[in-house]
Amino acid sequence: MTESPFPSDRPKAAKTAAFRLLRPLLFAVAVIGLTLGALIVLHERPASHPTGNDASLGQADAGKASPDKAAGAPMPPIVLPEPPPVPPLTSADFKGFQFKPQDQHGEGEAPASDRYDLTLRLERGDTVEKVLADIDVLEADRKQIDAALKALLKKRRLAIGESIDLQLQTLPDQDGPRVLSLSIRPQPEREFIVTRKDDGSYEGQEKVYKVSPRIVRVEAVRQGSLQQSAMQAGAPTPAILDFIRALSYDVDFQRELKQGQRFTLLLEQQVTSDGRVTDPGRLLAGELRLTDRTIIVVRFRPQNGADGFYNPKGESVVRSFLRTPMDASHITSRFGMREHPILGFSAMHTGVDFGAPTGTPIFAAGAGKVVTAGPNGGYGIFVKLQHTTQIGTGYGHMSRLGPGIKPGVLVRQGQVIGFVGSTGLSTGPHLHYEFYRDGHPVNPLAQKFAMRAGLSGKDMNRFKALSREYLNQLKNAPHIAEASPPPARQKESAAADGARGG
Ligand SMILES: [Zn+2]
Q1: Last residue of a domain, one of 208, 234, 263
Q2: Would 460 be classed as within a structural domain?
Q3: Spacing, Cα 427 to ligand 1 middle (Å)
Q4: CA of 389 to the centre of ligand 1 (A)
Q5: So what's the pLDDT on residue 470?
Q6: Is the domain of 233 the same as that of 140?
Q7: Which pLDDT score, from 0 to 100, does residue 465 have?
Q8: What pLDDT, on a 0 to 100 scale, did the predictor assign at position 365?
C-alpha cells in the first residue's frame, strides 16, 4: 500500500491556483503603483532643485517640457514620465487587433473601432440566414450573403455545430450590424468566405489551403501509464499505440517501466499552410529511456514490404516469438544443469521456469499448431506447439488448458493456451517453458535474438540514412507545443495558396 499523496498536495494545489487567479490582479496593482510612484517622483524632483540650477537639466529635457500648471514662471520644466509597461497581449486581445488594418469597407467614414468579430454556431434547424437574422442583419444583406454562400457550397450541407466567423460593423443609422465578411471552414484545408464589396454587394470565395507534412517531437515523462503520459504531452492515440506495440517485444512493462522515465515520440503531422493540423501525426520514431538502457524504434518500409518498426541496427522489433509467454513473470529456474528440487540429484533442466500465481494465462509464444495437450507425466498438464518444421515450444505444470486447446488446433501468437498451475513434478505454481530446435530442447532465452528479421542490401542503406535523420530529429525537431500555434483564427495569413472566386 502506498500513502495517498492527496492530503498534503491539495492545499498546495489550491494555493497555487489561487495565486494564479490573483496574479493578473497583483500585476495590475504593481503597474499602477509604479506609475503613481514615477509620477510623484518626477513631479517632485524638479521642485526640490534650486531654481537657478536647471541649466543642465532644462537643456536636455527642453523637448519634453510641458506647460507648467500654477507654480509660476521660474519653475523648471516638468518631465513627463515614460509610459508604464503594458501587460503582454493575450491571444484573445490579438484576434481583434489583426482585423483592424483591413479596410474592406473602403468608404473610410467608419472608424475601425466600429468593427468587431463574432463567432456563431449552427444549431439544429439553423440556416446561415436565420443566424444572421437573429443578430438583426438587414434582410437585403442576408439574402445576398445567403445566395453567395449557396453558390460556394453548391449542394454541400453544413454540419450542426459548424462555426461561422463574422466580421461585423456597427452603423449609427441602423439597428443591426453590417456583415463585412463571413467565413465557414468545414475542413481545415477548405474555407468559404463571403465578403462585402465597396458597392455594397457580396462576393463569395473559396480558399484551398495547401497541406504539407511537418515533423514534431513529443517529450514526456512517465507519470501513470505510458499511454496517459503520452496523451498528456499531446501525442495522438494511434501513434502512442504504435509505440507501445513496437516496444512490447523488447520491454518488460511490469518490471522495467518506472515512474519518471523519459520518452520521446517523433511524429509526422499534416498541416495546412496557415498552421491548422489536419492529421495529428503518425509515429516515425520513438525513444524510451529505461533505467539501464535506451530503446529506440524507427518506422521503415522495406522495398517489398509493409511499414514496420526497427531498432537502429535495422532489425525488426517484431519477433517470431514473444519475449516471455506470460505477463508479469519472473524466472525462478534457468536452463541447464541443476539439482532437481524433487528428485534431489543433479539433472539437466531442459527449460526455463517462470514463477507466477496459479491461473495466470499462458500465451502461445508464436503462431503454430498444437501437437500435444493434456497430462504428460512429470510435466503435468502440458502443451506442445509446433511453429515451423524445426521449431517447437512446450509449456508444463498447467492447472488447466486454454479454451479449445487440443491436438491439431492452430493458434495465433499470444493466444491463451493454458493457465499456470503446479501439476506434475512441481513444488509450486510456475510455468516450465521449453524451446525445441529439431526436436531437442535448447535455452529459450538464448534464442530470441535469432528470431528477428533484419534488413539488408539497399533497404539497409536507406534505413541507415533514415534512422540517422530520425535520431537527430528526436533531439532537435520542434516541440509539438511550439510548432502548433494556439487555434486562434489567423485571418491575416489567409491570403491562401489556392484562392479562387466563387
Ligand atoms: Zn522447469
Answers
A1: 208
A2: no
A3: 10
A4: 24
A5: 97
A6: no
A7: 96
A8: 85
Distance (Å) from CA 419 to ligand 1 centroid: 15
* 320: in domain: no
455 versus 78: the higher-pLDDT residue is 455
User: According to the model, what pLDDT value does residue 458 have?
Assistant: 92
Q: Do both 154 and 168 map to the same domain?
A: yes
Gap from CA of 404 to ligand 1 centroid (Å): 25
Whether residues 376 and 300 fall in one domain: no
pLDDT confidence of residue 484:
62
CA of 355 to the centre of ligand 1 (A): 10
Whether 10 is covered by a domain: the verdict is no
Mean pLDDT of 445-465: 80
Q: Between residues 403 and 242, which one has the greater pLDDT?
A: 403
User: Which of 69-83, 282-296, 303-317 is the least confident region?
Assistant: 69-83
Give the burial string for 8-20 (b: 16+ CB within 10 Å, else e).
eeeeeeeeeeeee
Q: Is the pLDDT of residue 295 over 90?
A: yes
Structure confidence at residue 499 (pLDDT): 42
CA of 351 to the centre of ligand 1 (A): 5
- Residue 308, all three cell numbers: 514496420
The reply to whether 135 and 247 lie within a common domain is no
Provide the grid cell at 243. 509505440
H helices within 294-350, ranges in order?
none
Tell how far the Cα of 335 is from the centroid of ligand 1, in angstroms.
8
Instruction: Give CA–CA dist 183/167, Å, rounded.
Output: 9
* Cα-to-centroid distance, 63 and ligand 1 (Å): 96
Chain segment 327-340, per-residue pLDDT in tens: 655 778 888 887 77
Q: Taking phi first (over 0 means left), then psi (-120 to 50 degrees means alpha), and beta for anything else, what does residue 132 get?
A: alpha
Residue 296 and residue 217 share a domain: yes
Domain identity same for 106 and 145? yes
In this prediction, residue 201 carries a pLDDT of: 94
Same structural domain, 177 and 268: no
Residue 358 alpha carbon to ligand 1 centre in Å: 15
Helix (H) or strand (E) holding 146: helix 139-153
Same domain (yes/no): 124, 147: yes
What is the domain count for the chain? 4
Domain final position from 182, 208, 234: 208
Residue 9 lies in a domain: no
Average pLDDT, the chain: 78
Q: How far is the CA of 353 from the centre of ligand 1 (A)?
A: 5
- C-beta atoms surrounding 38 within 10 Å: 13
CATH of the domain at 242: 3.10.450.350
Helix, strand, coil in percent for the chain, rounding step 5: 30, 30, 40
Distance (Å) from CA 156 to ligand 1 centroid: 68
Look at residue 310 in the predicted model and tell me its pLDDT.
93
**Ligand 1 centroid to 378 CA: how many Å?**
10
Which residues, at least 6 apart from 443, have a Cβ–Cβ distance to it below 8 Å? 334, 335, 336, 352, 435
Instruction: Determine the structural domain holding residue 196 and report its residue range.
Output: 101-208
Distance 372 CA to ligand 1 centre (A): 17
Ligand 1 centroid – CA 349 distance (Å): 6
Q: Between β-strands 440-442 and 308-310, what pairing exists: parallel, antiparallel or unpaired? A: unpaired
